[in-house]
Design brief:
The structure is a homodimer. Chain A is mostly helical. In chain A, about 65% of the residues lie in helices and about 0% in strands. In chain A, strands 1-2 form a two-stranded antiparallel sheet. The structure holds potassium ion (K) (2 copies). The site of one potassium ion (K) has 12 residues of chain B, from loops. One potassium ion (K) binds next to loops of chain A.
């Protein structure tokens, strides 16, 4: 109980800190004069109060956290911040005669903070801009949290793919205090994230978006979130230039931010070719985009090859990087196309990026291991170590991938079964869970690109919220809390 | 080339041997006086001729096979025997004014020999009994081959789950000649298989089936094949007693035959509790059957709880053991039920049984590994070996499971993509491939329990035939042939 309260202490501080991000919509509300300043001041006050009470109420239990407490902290942060995120949404909608349930608001906030981008709202074009912008602020803040989580926190907890492979966290390190290492790594990564955000923002503006649209779409792009200021997503802009900018920044955001940092430090692009994931990721995603473009042209979905390429590449990159934008209703294409896009969304993004899913590093390890297995079968006496970029992958890391894959498959099976049991139509059940667990956003069927999550019932919405959270925290971080071993002394 | 011809030499002999199994339908043709004796004599002559020519033509290249040649041999046996299997079918149908294409006949034979049980034929009730019986003969012979393959041949090739775990094939052993070990193991297993078959046959007869029906259904049951002498499968008999017998023998056939042999040797049932798979397999399958029964009763699909239990348990055991019989159109149930049944079909049968799929042993290793991973995350310095029934599972075996799972997932993805590209409706595409790759038989949609594979086009039928073969040979055996390493000197 003492340790739990020590975790709550840090959680309270994090929540108070998160409350301050409401200054962003406040500023925009003033700029745009949309009359929501008061709403955000109220929201801020409530959120801050909750955080501070939790923080002060547990001051007596303040203690240095052990790595093991990290699981609880991270899981609680990702469950409690969305609670605060609901405040402005609930105040706005229910205060303006539009009903928004707590379930729906929590889903929307979770979708924001996990950068999933599945939405329950329609007519977002008519929303008060600053309230709409709050959703994007959650994306952007969430994206920041995701990177630090993946590159600095999860490795300390012994969860994740890339970090373990790089073995840059030697054993004893894990026993050290959490803070110093996180702080220094985080600073470097924040700098990259900021830089990318600014360039993306200006590029969108230069390509013709309004300042407001550019800001929001920037947040959604670099976090690989997927919310849009328009119900019709990128189809609203109908601009190949804007789409090209989006593609570039989605790809950049799908690369490990530690790799960006190294490239920046070294002042060259060699870091990318040395990174095991960057090139396979970009090549897979773009290659599939081009293939689908050819397919859509050959099958006469689009008569013009360039048009086919434009729509195929944009939507493929968007789903494969787990951003989740759309510039057309790609569910109208032959089903194989969206299915392949979603399949890539499950597998292709890099660890340490803002993308979701299994991550390219695990896929590469699986492929290498399978190749070695084939060789081992043919040459039973040969020693066949598994190498990635010339570095040996320890057997322990391979077996941890195995465990991850089982949990991943099991999570999908259980969640889909619950969706079906609660009455969802099969296409919706499968793709909603996959879209949420991999933090993609749109699925197919009732949760497809031309639709949203509104048709799901409350139980299903909670399932999806849960899927987003465990997916974002790479399963182990949350699921370890459900083991008796965790709660034993 | 020399080695290839040495393999063809053994293949020819195997084919000639297989031709002699046509004596079975010959005898039944005489008993039942259905006038097909001549057809089988012709078929036998053709098949024998092909086999003998291949055997004699390569006599000069006769050589002791290396383990590595086993991959080619096994893959070729399972592709060429179905060729011979088509002869009686083609002669019968095309000789009696009913068109049967080679593609369809090959599918039917492959489905027979891999004990998959998906069929392209309808009106089987009206077929000449001995020709119908030929399909069951293929099931029975196939089942025999499968057991020997799994328990004696694949371990020598370093493929498969159970054998590697038991480590009863020490390294140097692999270099030994193939023949002696196979011969002794095979004899023991054949004895068990024969014994099980005779008891099953008599039980069916005693429960009211005709001698002919009992014979055919026996072959289909012990091989976990799924062909039936009636279009309506077990619904034709409408007998709880017959269904109960079927359940018992499906469960027995889903247990490792080496375990049966040990139990027989020791004259007790301790071998089953020592076997890592037997109890989890039976418990999972029966448990799910009861759960689905409860669900069907609660959701009012059946008003009577016993009726619900009867249909649920029979069909669940049938699909989960990969037999593939049906006594009702379970696709009319809420979709979650057939999906869970198919999911078990992918995972639950034992290695060394006649069942298909991933096999319980791999699943157990995955689960154990995941548990250890959780413990390892909580206690980074603890040594966490993975144990199964008190025996250490080497890391090498775990990583080979990892490779298997990747190949399995990849095979499904590629084959489903090809099904969709060739125009199959999604439910059909997914379940046809899963039903074939796991040697279950019926899927859902166009290939569901009330339908058959007839609606697929030729390309799709070939895909399904391929899926049945690679699934039956545990993927590696066939797929290793597609590596350049295999063909290098
Ligand atoms: K997303
Ligand atoms: K079967």
């Amino acid at each position: 109980m003492k340790r739990f309260l020590a975790v709550v202490h840090v959680l309270g501080f994090t929540m108070a800190l998160f409350a301050t991000t409401m200054f962003v919509p406040m500023v925009w509300s003033v700029i745009l004069e949309d009359g929501q300043l008061m709403l955000f001041i109220q929201s801020f006050a409530i959120a801050l109060l909750i955080g501070v009470v939790m923080w002060l109420g547990t001051l007596a239990y303040r203690a240095e956290l052990r790595p093991r407490d990290g699981f609880l902290l991270v899981s609680m942060v990702w469950s409690f911040l969305p609670l605060l995120g609901t405040i402005p949404l609930l105040l706005y909608f229910n205060g303006n005669g539009m009903h928004l349930s707590f379930t729906d608001a929590y889903f929307e906030s979770m979708s924001g903070l996990t950068a999933t981008g599945g939405t329950l709202l329609s007519n977002v074009d008519e929303m008060a801009p600053s309230v709409n912008l709050w959703r994007f602020t959650m994306h952007w803040v969430g994206g920041m949290g995701i990177i630090v989580l993946a590159v600095a926190i999860l490795p300390l907890l012994g969860v994740g793919g890339h970090q373990v492979f790089r073995a840059e966290t030697p054993g004893p390190m894990k026993e050290e205090k959490l803070t110093p290492r996180i702080a220094s790594t985080a600073k470097a990564l924040y700098a990259i994230y900021f830089g990318l955000s600014i360039v993306c923002f200006l590029a969108y503006r230069a390509a013709g978006m309004s300042w407001f649209d550019a800001w929001c779409q920037m947040a959604s792009t670099v976090a690989l979130g997927g919310f849009s200021t328009h119900d019709s997503s990128f189809a609203y802009f109908d601009s190949p230039l804007i789409e090209a900018i989006c593609i570039v920044f989605m790809l950049l955001s799908g690369i490990n931010f530690a790799t960006h940092f190294k490239a920046f430090q070294q002042g060259g692009i060699r870091a990318y070719s040395r990174c095991p994931e960057a090139i396979p990721f970009v090549a897979t995603v773009l290659g599939m985009g081009v293939l689908i473009g050819l397919y859509l042209w050959v099958t006469d979905v689009y008569q013009d090859p360039l048009t086919a390429l434009r729509y195929a590449v944009f939507n493929t990159v968007s789903i494969a990087t787990t951003a989740g934008f759309a510039n057309t209703d790609y569910e109208q294409w032959p089903l194989i196309a969206p299915l392949l896009m979603i399949l890539l969304g499950m597998f292709s993004t890099s660890s340490g990026s803002t993308g979701g899913g299994i991550k390219m590093i695990r896929v590469l390890m699986l492929i290498k291991q399978t190749r070695q297995e084939m060789i081992g079968i043919l040459h039973p006496h040969a020693v066949t170590p598994v190498l990635l970029k010339g570095r040996l992958i320890p057997g322990k890391v391979l077996t941890s991938v195995l465990a991850f894959m089982l949990l991943y498959g099991l999570s999908i099976a259980v969640l889909v079964a619950l969706m079906l049991l609660s009455g969802a139509e099969p296409r919706t059940a499968f793709t909603a869970i996959i879209a949420c667990l991999n933090n993609i956003g749109p699925g197919l069927g009732d949760v497809g690109p031309s639709s949203n999550y509104l048709s799901l019932n409350d139980f299903q919405i909670w399932l999806c919220s849960f899927a987003m959270m465990i997916g974002r925290l790479e399963l182990f971080t949350v699921l370890v809390l459900f083991t008796s071993g965790f709660w034993r002394k």
